[in-house]
Amino acid sequence: MTTPRGLHVALIEPEIPGNTGNIIRLCANTGAQLHLVEPLGFSLEDRLLRRAGLDYHEYTRMHVHRDFATLRAALPQGTRWVAYSAHGTGRHTDWQFADGDVLVFGPETRGLTPAQRNVADACLRIPMREGVRSLNLSNAVAIAVYEAWRQRGFDAHWCET
Fold first, then answer.
1. Per-residue pLDDT for 4 more than 70?
2. Euclidean distance between CA atoms 161 and 151, whole angstroms
């Protein structure tokens, strides 16, 4: 990958095919590039993944990476990494998004590791009520992507590379 332009979504070791299918559809509709980091908790041929993503695969730029280090090496130096976590210290609405930002999300059952959060330029959280379990992964990614796109005035060309 040679260009940092646009918006990137990285799913680290996603576990639930329906969530990833919904995120494929989201990326198709917003123009964000999708990066999946292995091991995946499902096959890319999984019927639930296909069902949730419908025929949006052809409209999504999707890359599969062997591990987190391979993902980081695939994008240019200077790329900004924005981690999303219940351990985040800033609100998702406070970050000023720019071309090439990578929005990073961990596995549904574990979230990002401290090491993955620590290499990020920011670790953000989406506000939620106390005492309630976390949001569904595909909902959290949608909130983050649309906030980034909103800040850019919903410019249809910003996410496209």
1. no
2. 18
Q: Which residues contact 26 (CB under 8 A, 6 or more apart)?
A: 9, 32, 138, 141, 142, 145
Q: How far is CA 145 from CA 42, 66, 93, 151, in A?
A: 24, 24, 11, 10
| Cβ neighbours of residue 132 closer than 8 Å, sequence gap 6 or more | none
User: Where residue 142 falls among pLDDT bands split at 50, 70, 90?
Assistant: very high
d(CA 57, CA 60) in angstroms, rounded, equals: 5
d(CA 114, CA 83): 11
Cis peptide before 76 (omega within 30 of 0): no
**CA distance from start to end of the chain:** 11
What are the tens digits of pLDDT across the range 73-109? 999 989 999 999 999 999 999 999 998 999 999 999 9
Percentages helix, strand, coil for the chain (3-state, rounded to 5) are 30, 15, 50
pLDDT at 13 over 90: yes
Give this prediction's pTM.
0.91
